Amino acid sequence: MHTIARLALPAVFALLSGCATLFPAAVDVGDTEADLLQKRGQPTKRYKDGNTELFEYMTGPWGQRTYMARLVNGRVTSFEQVLTVEKFATIEVGRANKETVLRTIGTPSDTSYLPLRDLEVWSYPYKENDVWNSLMHVHFDSAGVVRQMLNGPDPRFDPDRRFPFGFR
Description:
By secondary structure, the chain is of the alpha+beta class. The chain has helices at residues 2-22, 33-40, 85-88, 98-105; strands at 45-49, 52-58, 66-72, 75-81, 110-114, 119-128, 132-140, 146-153. Helices cover 24% and strands 35% of the residues. The strands form two sheets. It has a four-stranded antiparallel β-sheet, sandwiched between helices. Strands 5-6-7-8 form a four-stranded antiparallel β-sheet, with no helix packed on it.
């Protein structure tokens, strides 16, 4: 029986360490940069915005969440999930540019180009109102200014489609 217990113990530890990455520790306002890095690891991107530093924690191309930590003088002043309808609404069409978008909602999961309209498109999967699997598309002109924002259902979650071409 001890042999089974010795074999099972490493499996239990591996399983528990996996849970730590699935459910990372909460980030609190006032945490130091070291606390943030210990709780969340290295960010996917870092941005400087004056005396503020932004740490982006993107959850990957299929992820529907991106967290942004704002640090001033090495301390966390906010930590929020930024792929939300409310955050998208802060991006001003005709005024915002690529840098503004990156600092507001982070790195896109996918990029594409519309040659007939000469627009670059950045796409962000998100869970609209924590219910609907959606995609937000931010369209930039050749000068890098936001010209249009369109959202709609995320086709990756459509049960009537078959990857990659919709064939049944």
